[in-house]
Design a protein that fits this description.
alpha/beta; Glucose Oxidase, domain 1; TIM Barrel; 3 domains; 8-stranded parallel β-barrel; 49% helix
């Protein structure tokens, strides 16, 4: 038995075999060919280049239609690689000179060019190696008659292990048969962690190189609460994990009665209980957990699940399905928040040295009008079927909000002229997830209908801690005085302007912060469905005055560690009091 320690990213436990996923390049086997076969080999190479060209051209065509030439640029550069004499002529020469197969020749020709690019000082040229490898992968697959090379999920219930999973990989793998995730990279707020929590799948991330020890088929026990992965668990550990899953079922059953009750404090304040979702399939679970609406629909996954940009009609279908599922409850559609770790090649995003400070969220949207307009039109049209709301990500100031609202007006005018059903008055809100937005919250509040705190990014940008870097994951400190002050002041600014303020970052899904959010005076919280009953239970037990007192005390602390200790002491004391009163068990922290 061996215990690997990482970062607890999504609660719960699992006991199952490992399904290790890795993006593997096709393996090139070198073969020596008789001279008589070389012409045919060169032909085979040209055939594969033609197949690759056709695949890329089809993608470019679809992309240009949706995004304009800028969006298709990256794939057009792939077409140029296919025509690059340095590669193609060299590969043909290698087939003839070395009497080798086309796979080996093409691989060697690409490797020579890549080596030269890697030697240059120019960072942009070095980055092109990534594109070369992409094209090599495509041509080799065509030569070998292999499929597209997308990652596949497990066929039987398993623990999915990987070095890292990009959001598009997670979308490709899906949730089917995934009992837990064990990943080498990542932190609590990386998107795979968020997705895992939203789907209620236990996850441990930041395991580092140790994840390579998890081999296909090995039995492992994953503890998403403690951040541990037990390799080859002994009999006692197996028994303990079986018991833990049984206990989880019992706790869930106990919380079941809360489903139709409001999150009202003993002194009568009601907190809106919303959920974060990514896909229509999550609606059923959200309602089963008592969701009063969707506080954050991350639309990225709708884009990442496919190879090309979803059209307005395709988006409308998905959005309308969600609205129908939520049966009259409000749904907040967040416009595409691509960038950071959420990159998708077909969107034309390039690798950047500081992706979280780069072409992300609203910046990307405003630079890609056709894409933004298609999404906005789909949302306005979906709003004809129920109370939809619109929310923009990564706002840093009033200019971006105004520009985005101008595009909204343009869409509404078009829809009206086309006579298409839509709701011209849907509420438009913004994420408060940059310190700049929090600091000018009063100015922003005057020009929008609601705020939602994105604490994953707000903590990242305020404390200058990369949310994907496991080494600085310890700096994810939602009760750091800097974060608490921003939350307090921006909430006050919203209320002074008469608009609502909610939260949809991970902080809301962690039960240990529920009283803090209540003390802040937020109007609603948007959480992972599985966490909703626990948060509701805490709200129903906590008088507002008590939460306000706790927040006031936290705000007097000079360090995050002191604030954290104060919170831990408060929660321990509360648990003790409840145990004394012989009430139902206080749920543990998330
Ligand atoms: C956030 O930043 O807190 C948030 C909810 O957005 P995302 O995690 O999608 O960046
Ligand atoms: Mg964010």
């Amino acid at each position: 038995m061996r215990i690997l320690r990482g970062i607890p990213a999504s609660p719960g436990t699992a006991l199952a075999g490992v399904h290790h996923v890795a993006r593997e390049l096709p393996v090139v086997v070198r073969a020596e060919l008789p001279a008589a076969d070389l012409d045919r080999e060169v032909e085979r190479l040209h055939g594969a280049l033609t197949t690759a060209r056709a695949q890329i051209q089809a993608l470019v065509a679809r992309l240009s239609a949706d995004l304009g030439p800028e969006g298709a640029a990256i794939l057009e550069s792939h077409l140029l690689i296919l025509e690059d004499e340095l590669i193609v002529d060299r590969a043909v020469a290698l087939v003839r000179e070395q009497s080798c197969n086309a796979e080996a020749a093409f691989h060697d020709a690409v490797a020579e060019v890549a080596a030269r690019l890697l030697e240059t000082e120019d960072g942009y040229l070095r980055e092109r190696v990534q594109d070369l490898r992409d094209v090599e992968d495509r041509v080799l697959r065509a030569l070998m008659g292999l499929g597209s090379g997308r990652l596949v999920g497990p066929a039987t219930p398993s623990v999915v292990a990987a070095d890292d999973l990009a959001p598009s990989d997670t979308a490709a793998i899906g949730a089917r048969n995934v009992l837990a995730f064990a990943l080498g990279a990542g932190s609590r707020t990386s998107h795979v962690a968020i997705l895992a929590r939203s789907l209620g799948i236990p996850a441990v991330v930041g395991l580092g190189d140790a994840v390579a020890e998890l081999r296909d088929g090995d039995l492992v026990a994953v503890d998403g609460d403690r951040g541990e992965v037990v390799l080859q668990p002994d009999g006692e550990t197996v028994a303990r994990f079986r018991q833990l899953s049984q206990q989880q079922l019992t706790v869930n059953a106990k919380l079941d009665h809360l489903r139709d009750l409001p999150a009202t404090t003993p002194d009568g304040r009601r907190l809106g209980m919303l959920v974060n979702i990514e896909m229509p399939v999550e609606v059923e679970k959200a309602l089963a957990c008592g969701a009063e609406g969707v506080g954050l629909l991350r639309t990225e996954y709708i884009y990442f699940q496919r190879q090309t940009i979803p059209t307005e009609a395709q988006q409308l279908e998905i959005y309308a399905e969600i609205m129908r599922g939520m049966a009259g409850r409000p749904v907040v559609f967040r416009t595409l928040d691509v960038g950071g770790d959420k990159v998708q090649r077909y969107l034309g995003a390039r690798k950047e040295s500081n992706p979280f400070l780069g072409w992300r969220g609203i910046r990307f949207l405003l630079a890609n009008r056709p894409l933004l307009k298609a999404q906005l039109r789909a949302i306005y049209r979906a709003a004809a079927g129920g109370p939809a709301r619109l929310m923009f990500p990564m706002i840093t100031g009033v200019e971006e909000l105004r520009e985005a609202r101008d595009v909204c007006r343009e869409c509404v005018a078009e829809l009206a002229a086309e006579g298409l059903p839509h709701d011209p008055d849907l509420e438009v809100g913004i994420m408060i997830e940059t310190p700049a937005a929090a600091l000018v919250a009063d100015l922003l509040a005057a020009e929008c209908d609601f705020f939602s705190f994105g604490t994953n990014d707000l903590v990242q940008y305020t404390l200058a801690m990369d949310r994907l870097n496991s080494r600085v994951a310890y700096l994810y400190q939602p009760v750091h005085p800097a974060v608490l002050r921003l939350l307090r002041d921006a909430t006050a600014a919203a209320h002074a302007a008469g608009i609502r303020a909610g939260i949809c970052g991970e902080m809301a899904s962690e039960t240990r912060y529920a009283e803090v959010l209540l003390g802040l005076g937020l109007d609603d919280v948007s959480v992972h469905a599985a966490q909703l009953p626990k948060i509701k239970q805490v709200v129903r037990w906590t008088p507002v005055a008590e939460a306000q007192g706790l927040l006031a005390d936290l705000l007097t602390r000079r360090t995050a560690a002191e604030a954290d200790r104060l919170l831990a002491d408060y929660l321990a004391e509360k648990k003790r009091r409840r145990a004394e009163a012989a009430g139902p068990e206080v749920p543990d922290g998330a």
